[in-house]
Every structure is written in C-alpha cells, then in structure tokens.
C-alpha cells in the first residue's frame, strides 16, 4: 500500500504561507511543507485539502483562525445532509475544506484534526481510479463512478478522487484552471510518478533528501 506521509505546496512566499498554516490550522512542518513556486498557475488547481474534525465548534474555530490569518471564505460554515462544513482559500491559493459528520457540538472546540484528506478532481474517473489501484492504493470506500476514497494505511494523509467539475462545484469555484497544481504528494512504498491529471508524487525518502539539500544551500 502507498502511504502518504506529507504534502508539499508551492507558494509565491513560502515563509508567509508557513506562518499562515501554523496560525490557521496548527499544521506542523512534518505534514505540510512549503517551497517557492517556480511554475505559473491560474484558476482552479484541481484539488482541495480537507481537515475532518470532531464537531461544528471545531469547524467554526478553524474558519475563524484561517480568516484572521488572511484566508478568504468560499463557502460559509453551514449544515448539510452529511454534517457541517466550510470552505476557505489560503493566501497562497490552495483551497481547504473544514468538515465534520456531526451536526451539533457537545462542547467547546478542541481544534483536533481527526483526518487529513487530499481530494483530487479528475477528468476521467474510471481511468484515474484504475491508475491508482495499479500503483498499490486500496479502495476503502466508493460511490459508483463519482467518488473513491483510498485506505490511508499508516500514512498521515488519505487520498480521494472526485470528478473535477463536481469538486469545483462543491468548493464554490469555477472548474477552469491551468498550469501547475502547485502540489506534490510524498508517499512511502511508491516510486515518483505523475498521474493522468498531472499531479506529482515523490517518495517520502526523496522529499527528505531534497529538504536536506535545500537547507544546506
């Protein structure tokens, strides 16, 4: 099984982005890495990073801290059939979803993150799902030819696939976009590759080595 150990986001100002994520979501550098963007990107980047939390109070708390740190609210926190959630866009352009299956809080916010999910919007759902299965990912949950969620194994991030237009609609943005996704997933148990939708993957060891070289420079 390919286990996602961390995510790297490319940002125009990596230091500012690092401060944002620490202040907004309490994310540590072992999970989320930032590096300088070197390729152009416009419009929807085709993915969202979702933080699953225990209760609505936690969603509200993370939305408040994200906005205070400079995020834009794309979808205000609200109840739905599946629970309670909100969508915000970080200053670096990445879109984040805060969600819980609970519809009512039983206490104050704990700011505990139960799960981190990388949700990719794909053009050909069946082909991309098959591509990941062939690379060692195990489907844990699926809804026909629309959504697939893979087992996280021992990794810190879970991978899920969704149709690109449907994902954009869910996030409240236009589906058009081009250039770099400005995201690289780092997984143990897999070689470096680029998927059918242009998302880049590298091994966890390659990421660590690259970080050491960058620090030495």
From TrEMBL:
Q: Matching Gene3D superfamilies, A to Z? A: 2,3-Dihydroxybiphenyl 1,2-Dioxygenase, domain 1
Query: For the Glyoxalase-like domain, which residue ranges apply?
Result: 7-94
| InterPro entries from the UniProt entry | Glyas_Bleomycin-R_OHBP_Dase, Glyoxalase_6
* Record Pfam families: Glyoxalase_6
Q: Which PANTHER family match?
A: BLR2520 PROTEIN
What protein name applies here? Answer: Glyoxalase
